[in-house]
Design a protein that fits this description.
Helices cover 31% and strands 22% of the residues. The chain starts with a helix and ends with a strand. A hairpin with a 5-residue loop joins β2 and β3. It is of the alpha+beta class. The protein has a single domain, classed as Glutamine Phosphoribosylpyrophosphate, subunit 1, domain 1 (4-Layer Sandwich). The structure holds aspartic acid (ASP). The site of aspartic acid has 13 residues, from β8. Aspartic acid binds next to β8.
Length: 330
């Protein structure tokens, strides 16, 4: 018999591929795939952190008019990218240790189409470039100079993303940190946004300037399909924030979706993924990671390693911040 404990042992060995459809069904029958009797909450949008409130509002303008989830997720995170006061996404994002602002983003629709850009410089809205990669090329990801060249060819404008306040913060960091990249829970955040539209289609977007003062060329989880974001229209969608290296190591967002496929609620799926991160890392100092998830029924959840993670939720009856559950206090 496959008990949950056995499942965890097995999955530690084999990852996603060995998860079978029945793994969780005996212990958790609350969420079944394709339960036609279930009431679906739609449209609905959720996104990471407090900046998600404004992003959700922009996404909602599209969702409320019966628009598509893919348009909604792009419009939502563009608001955060274009906010120069936000130091973790788009313009105003904190730079790498060389003083260069490099942006990562990805987008995924209800048919598993996806696009991504990584280490993109001088372009304010990487999510829209990612969407062009998805729609106008046979590829999924473009990086660095190639991504920038593609963006310019598509008519995106070259923009200086290093604001005065980000430059000042970087100069101060250089004095104290002696040009060493550090993992610091204070200096990174991301917007990941998931939406379910009126037609019942899911989509997601994820965009970030990544970890501040990282090595030039470092790419985190956020633009990596399956790590920072994953959408499967049969099941649900998930995205991640926090230390990207830890998320990549467990294929975080893909795992959350697979766990939902196997019967877990969005909340429990996020919790399992977080616990896997905890199990795989001996040193959890500053190892904050949070996941949010949305299933086909419009049910939502979130979970993080440490306290303090929250997400914004908007539906026809709710517009609020939700404190995610967590494993431990700092
Ligand atoms: N996950 C992002 C990265 O590692 C940063 C964050 O969400 O705080 O680049």
């Amino acid at each position: 018999m496959k008990t949950r404990r056995n499942f965890l042992k097995l999955s530690a060995l084999g990852g996603v591929a060995i998860i079978s459809n029945s793994c969780f069904s005996k212990e958790n029958e609350s969420v079944k795939i394709n339960d036609t009797s279930k009431n679906v909450i739609k449209p609905i949008v959720i996104s990471t952190w407090i900046h998600g409130m404004e992003a959700n509002a922009a996404a909602w303008e599209i969702l409320a008019k019966k628009g598509n989830s893919i348009d909604a997720v792009e419009a939502g995170v563009r608001v955060t990218e274009s906010d120069p006061e936000n130091s973790s996404v788009g313009i105003g994002g904190l730079p790498d240790r060389d003083g260069k602002v490099t942006l990562d983003a990805c987008i995924m629709d209800h048919e598993n189409n996806c696009g991504a850009v990584a280490c993109l410089q001088d372009i304010e809205n990487p999510i829209s470039v990612a969407r062009k990669v998805m729609e106008d090329t046979p590829h999924v990801m473009l990086v660095g100079d190639g991504a920038k060249q593609f963006a310019l060819e598509k008519g995106f404008k070259e923009t200086n993303l290093l604001t005065n306040s980000s430059k000042t913060a970087w100069e101060k960091w250089k004095e104290e940190s002696k040009y060493q990249p550090v993992i610091n829970s204070e200096n990174h955040d991301t917007i990941g946004l998931l939406a379910l539209d009126e037609k019942g289609n899911l989509a997601g977007a994820c965009t970030t300037s990544g970890m501040a003062y990282k090595l030039h060329g470092r790419v985190g989880d956020s633009p990596i399909i399956g790590a920072g974001l994953f959408v499967d229209n049969e099941v649900g969608a998930a995205c991640a924030t926090g230390v990207g290296e830890a998320v990549i190591r467990i294929a975080g967002s893909a795992i959350v979706v697979e766990l939902m496929r196997n019967g877990l609620s969005p909340n429990d799926a996020c919790k399992e993924a977080v616990q896997r991160i905890i199990k795989k890392h001996k040193d959890l100092t500053n190892m904050q990671v949070g996941f949010i998830a949305l299933n086909k029924y419009g049910e939502t959840g979130g979970y993080s390693v440490y306290a303090g993670f929250n997400y914004a939720l908007k539906s026809s009856s709710q517009n609020e911040m939700v404190d995610a559950k967590f494993d431990r206090n700092w």
